[in-house]
């Protein structure tokens, strides 16, 4: 069985709720995903997992969620070479349109040079924002799934469902159900 670990940080609960929905979708495909608050996480647990999903919200004009920021040094000690990783971020595209899901960009900047095999890039189509640190060079993809519970909560379930389907393919996980 594939060891899938989802690590999230959250200030007001939205990133944890998204984690539960992601877990549910994986479970429907027959895969167990362990959820872990980043405050409980360790470099050893990350090293052990076959697949990691990291969830992070952005706060205070492009600021990194505090618990993830505290975990930065530990994360930098992990062995991520070839590790399958996907990122998702919570943000508010109208309220903070110059900094939309910036924290995903921050995580990407850390893990990409470490040799992680990053999957789950997500099209920017359907979002209305000015700028983001989480944009790919061609500006048509985010470095992970963008979820906006403040402005587009009605789209979140479908986005999560489609993203998990994409991940199952990109991680080459068979439907085990
Ligand atoms: C004071 C404040 C600052 C915020 N700053 C940003 C920001 O810079 N970029 C962004 O995309 N979202 C920003 N947001 C939106 C949050 O990221 C969003 O509400 C998210 O769902 C919170 O996730 P959490 O409940 O897991 O902490 C901000 C929200 C507040 C209230």
From TrEMBL:
- List the SUPFAM superfamilies: Flavoproteins (SSF52218)
Say which domain of life the source belongs to: Bacteria
Alphabetically ordered keywords of this record: Electron transport, Flavoprotein, FMN, Transport
Q: Which Pfam families match?
A: Flavodoxin_1 (PF00258)
InterPro entries named among the record's database cross-references: Flavodoxin (IPR050619), Flavodoxin/NO_synth (IPR008254), Flavodoxin_CS (IPR001226), Flavodoxin_lc (IPR010086), Flavoprotein-like_sf (IPR029039)
Kindly list the cofactors needed: FMN
Q: Which residues form the Flavodoxin-like domain?
A: 4-168
> Which family does the UniProt entry place this protein in?
Belongs to the flavodoxin family.
The record's function comment reads: Low-potential electron donor to a number of redox enzymes.
Protein's name in the database? Flavodoxin
Source organism: Litoribrevibacter euphylliae
